[in-house]
Design goal:
Elements: E1 4-9, E2 16-22, E3 27-32, E4 37-42, E5 49-57, E6 60-69
Antiparallel strand pairs: 1-4, 2-3, 2-5, 5-6
């Protein structure tokens, strides 16, 4: 089964990236977000649990939210 987290960019924004951080504070995934549209982040490799997703623009945290991974 494909497990993914979809992040949709509603406005055209440059310099966007994401980090997925475990409950212990380790960065487990990171990448760039598209200028516009939707990014699909594969979560198959993550252990079940709570993670925090940080969205950054030009290195500065723009927003963050919590996700729960269940397989």
């Amino acid at each position: 089964a494909n497990a993914e987290l979809n992040i949709q960019m509603l406005e055209k924004m440059d310099g966007m990236s994401y980090s997925v951080i475990s409950s212990t504070g380790s960065e487990v995934l990171k990448g760039e977000l598209p200028f516009t549209g939707t990014a699909a982040i594969q979560t198959d490799s993550l252990q079940p649990g709570i993670y925090f997703v940080q969205i950054r623009q030009n290195g500065q945290t723009a927003t963050s939210f919590r996700v729960v991974v269940i397989h």
